[in-house]
């Protein structure tokens, strides 16, 4: 588990995940010298024993990245140095290119975002997590059209996305969780299926969380892991 933060001042925080010991998928566009990646921390504040703070060498954006987050809403942070793996710092598996976990698959999303709109984490700022089922982009797009005047033929949720959550709401990500990992257990291994991208409100009916589908970008990520 990784967290990117500014090197000085009051930091914006983004979640991330460690794919190998020198790369962490996230979604913040930034100058490399401004950010560091914290690994092995389960709460914010002073780094606990076993946690690491790694400087970023380079920020890589996918070819289809768009400023409005409609496409390519993730980044690959190349660290300046390899980080040692430990009980607290472990890589997550990448999905097979083009793979499609079945809808309803139980997954976990984690982050340091608000508990609900306007309600921040408690003072000791623990890492939060919630179990949510996967939704395919077509079903998710149908839900996002409920209560809108957007023509049904006009996509709100694009094919490069996937969703997770419940049609009735209640469990979801919230403000501050952007960039966090959506991981699913497959054959005994945790796989990074999605990266928190956007949503409407928090845990509202018919508005599940929308994620960048990592399988769409697996070839691009793999091509840069050895650089």
TrEMBL record:
| PROSITE patterns in alphabetical order | TRYPSIN_DOM (PS50240), TRYPSIN_SER (PS00135)
Q: What keyword terms does UniProt attach to this protein?
A: Disulfide bond, Glycoprotein, Hydrolase, Protease, Serine protease, Signal, Zymogen
Give the GO molecular function terms.
serine-type endopeptidase activity
Q: Which InterPro entries match?
A: Peptidase_S1_PA, Peptidase_S1_PA_chymotrypsin, Peptidase_S1A, Trypsin_dom, TRYPSIN_SER
Q: Give the record's GO biological process terms.
A: proteolysis
Would the keyword Hydrolase turn up in this protein's UniProt record? yes
Annotated ranges, domain Peptidase S1:
30-226
Q: Which Pfam families match?
A: Trypsin
Region (Disordered) residue spans: 1-24
What is the protein name for this chain?
A: Peptidase S1 domain-containing protein
């Amino acid at each position: 588990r990784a967290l990117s933060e500014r090197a000085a001042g009051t930091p914006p925080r983004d979640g991330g995940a460690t794919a190998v010991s020198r790369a962490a998928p996230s979604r913040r566009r930034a100058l490399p010298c401004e950010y560091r990646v914290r690994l092995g921390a389960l709460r914010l504040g002073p780094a606990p024993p076993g946690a690491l703070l790694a400087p970023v060498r380079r920020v890589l954006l996918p070819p289809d990245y768009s400023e409005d987050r409609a496409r390519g809403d993730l980044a690959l942070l190349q660290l300046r140095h390899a980080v040692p793996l430990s009980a607290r710092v472990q890589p997550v598996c990448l999905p097979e290119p083009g793979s499609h976990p079945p809808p309803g698959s139980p997954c976990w999303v984690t982050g340091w975002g608000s508990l609900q709109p306007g309600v921040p984490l408690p003072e000791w700022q623990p890492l939060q997590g919630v179990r949510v089922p996967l939704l395919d982009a077509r079903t998710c797009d149908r839900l996002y059209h409920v209560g809108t005047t957007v023509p049904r033929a006009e996509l709100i949720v694009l094919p490069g996305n996937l969703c997770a959550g419940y049609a009735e709401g209640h469990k979801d990500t919230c403000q501050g969780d952007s960039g966090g990992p959506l991981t699913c257990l497959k054959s005994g291994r945790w796989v990074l299926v999605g990266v928190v991208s956007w949503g409407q409100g928090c845990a509202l009916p018919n508005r599940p969380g929308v994620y960048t589908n990592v399988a769409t970008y697996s070839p691009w990520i793999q091509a840069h892991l050895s650089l």
